[in-house]
Specification:
- It is built from 17 helices and 2 strands.
- The protein is mainly alpha-helical and 324 residues long.
- The chain has a two-stranded antiparallel ribbon with strand order 1-2.
- A hairpin with a 2-residue loop joins strand 1 (92-93) and strand 2.
- Helix 2 (11-25) crosses helix 5 (63-88), helix 4 (47-56) crosses helix 9 (160-185) and helix 10 (190-217) runs parallel beside helix 17 (307-321).
- The protein is globular.
- The protein starts with a helix and ends with a helix.
């Protein structure tokens, strides 16, 4: 089953969450309203709300309860993207102008802060303190992940372990708690919510590694931005780290990365891309992504055999094999 087929089976509920997202971010402030809606209308797969809703199927499914998790988690993701675009000096995302590009950095930062605040306001409507503790800890970890990424810009000496810890914080943890909190909001037992967390964590790791591979192998039409954007910004991702372990290409690749850094990323990266694509870096990264996906599937088989479990399995396969 394709991702959009899964969405079709949940069409009414996903549409409800989309309307709630818009209702939540609408502001009396004209500019803030304009920037927030621009971000919302720029698209996105809404994968985190879908995880919340599917996890809710393992408990007492109540859309009014689940929206108080699904909407805030998607808003937190949206806010992190706005801030990312400022840090990365990104002009486009998914083929659309970013908030910082259409307005400026200050407007983008305050837009992100506003959306974060709206997320926290909504989730307080849930009276479960365990949910609040999980979310607050996750947000702290996300911020640390962002700081680590900035610290490691153009750091070719970082270890694979450093990279994995960074993407755990930046990406995987939010997907993991989307599954976990969806289950908890639906009244699932702790064992079920923990298994869903493990599933979400491993899917999140797969998602980010696949995203980093696509940045090096995809086309602009596929990924909505020029390929090699990560390396231009100094973000040394897993395929690059694996490529650097090959002594036959380490020196020319280091020289290319150094040249890109000297030009502050404002230079052609085609040679660096060629070196990485012709190395084992891509295949080794994909192999690790596949191992994470298998761990996600291993967690799933321990859950009750419901339609939602099959949908979660299909999403994992989509993420592992996606081309955009």
């Amino acid at each position: 089953m394709k991702l959009w087929d899964i969405y079709a089976t949940m069409k009414n509920d996903v549409s409800f969450i989309e309307r709630e997202l818009e209702r939540t971010i609408v502001s009396d402030h004209e500019l803030l309203n304009e920037t927030s809606l621009h971000l919302l209308k720029s698209g996105g797969k809404r994968i985190r709300p879908v995880f919340v809703l599917l996890a809710g199927k393992f408990g007492t499914y109540d859309l009014e309860q689940l929206k108080r998790v699904a909407v805030p988690l998607e808003l937190i993701h949206m806010a992190s993207l706005v801030h990312d675009d400022v840090i990365d000096d990104a002009d486009t995302r998914r083929g659309n102008l970013t908030v910082k590009s259409k307005w400026d950095n200050r407007i983008a930062m305050y837009t992100g802060d506003y959306i974060y605040a709206k997320a926290l306001t909504m989730i307080t409507e849930l009276e479960n303190p365990h949910i609040h503790r999980i979310l607050s800890k996750a947000m702290v970890q996300m911020c640390i992940g962002e700081m680590e990424q900035i610290r490691d810009f153009f750091n070719t000496d970082q270890s694979v372990r450093q990279y994995l810890l960074r993407i755990r914080r930046k990406t995987a943890i939010l997907i993991a708690i989307s599954c976990q909190l969806g289950a908890l909001a639906a009244g699932s037992d702790l064992k079920t919510s923990h298994l869903l967390y493990r599933y979400g964590y491993n899917v999140g790791m797969t998602f980010q590694i696949r995203d980093d591979v696509l940045d090096l192998t995809g086309t602009e039409a596929q990924i909505g931005k020029p390929p090699g954007n990560d390396i231009k910004q100094g973000n040394i991702t897993l395929p690059v780290l694996f490529a650097l372990q090959d002594n036959n290409i380490r020196l020319p690749l280091l020289e290319e990365i150094h040249r890109i850094r000297q030009h502050n990323g404002d230079t052609d990266v085609s040679e660096a891309l060629s070196i990485i694509r012709n190395s084992k870096g891509i295949s080794e990264a994909e192999q690790l992504a596949n191992r994470y996906m298998q761990k996600a599937l291993d967690a799933l088989v321990q859950l009750p055999d419901r339609r939602a479990r099959k949908s979660l399995r299909d999403i994992a396969h989509f993420i592992a094999n996606r081309s955009h």
